[in-house]
Amino acid sequence: MNEHSTSDASTDVVRLDEGHHEGTGGLPERFENPGLPPHVHRLSDDSEGGAKRAERQVATMFGLSMLATLLFIVAYFAIDRTASIYLPGIGKANALNVSLGVTMGLSLFLIGAGAVHWAKTLMPDTEIVEERHVQRSDDATRDKAVGIVLEGGEKAQLGRRPLIKASMSGALGLFALPFVVQVAGSLGNPTTALSGLRSTLWDAATAQKPMRLVRDPEGTPVKAEDVTIGSVFHILPENIKDSEHVLEDKGKAAVLLMRLDPSQFMPGHAGDKSQSWGYQGIIAYSKICTHVGCPVGLYEQQTHHLLCPCHQSTFDATNDMNVIFGPAKRPLPQLKITVDDEGYLVAPQGFQEPVGPSFWER
Q: Mind telling me which InterPro entries this protein's record contains (predicted)?
């Protein structure tokens, strides 16, 4: 048994030694360099006519990109912001959003497709192997590297293909215009932005016809007796079911409802307002953080603090949701509530200030 085992081991050692060649010092030599596959010439490499055809194809893509960008600008101003269209498999969608998304997507896609086609048909595609070297080369090598870059630009035929250079510059330049138009037309106008933030579905509530508070997402009304001390409800206005732009309206009208012991409110003006706008310790505040608009949904029952999960802004529910920590600069807007004849919680009016990020003075 021992002899047989020794013989097998010896055989294994010999087989292992035969599997590679030893270099100096008994160490195996490096694997041979397999080299690079032979370069396959393209039509544009051997035919100036083929290169011209590729140039026209690339320029066409860039030109179509410019057309899509111009259509974006036209759609931005021409399409009614309340218009809707039906999309198969999706349902009703805002016509302006669809138009802007399609035109901007086409513009960006055609820029990318033109650049890829340019690289595959006209730019050099030979593979080059360069050994690693010391990070700081000598001046001669650095000058040589600059020369290689300049030579690469020459090989990419930028100088010889002015049509590509001009069309690419136009496509990239025009593609920036949609962002300029949106900033100048919407975000750049504080009055326009504020009017959007000031308007929520709660504005339909009046003293004569108050708006019921309903659970999100069930849509069922809430009675005051359902809200126990320490509990939190995610609330929407009852008319959310009739909204044609549910996501937008829900984003602005979302409310957090909670109940505190009335003795826990801080004395003074802030605490008085919290209680007078609430009902027997039940208070309702906008769910949208006044920093950058993240949903504030983390409630610490013991400290009565509301936390924003994005940037840790912290609001004090006992002190009119004033900011006690984090980057937010404004308290959460409070929604005034009461009860109707059936005991359901209702809002007799909308928010008295814009909801969401406080980029503008309120």
A: QcrA_N, Rieske_2Fe-2S, Rieske_2Fe-2S_sf, Rieske_Fe-S_prot
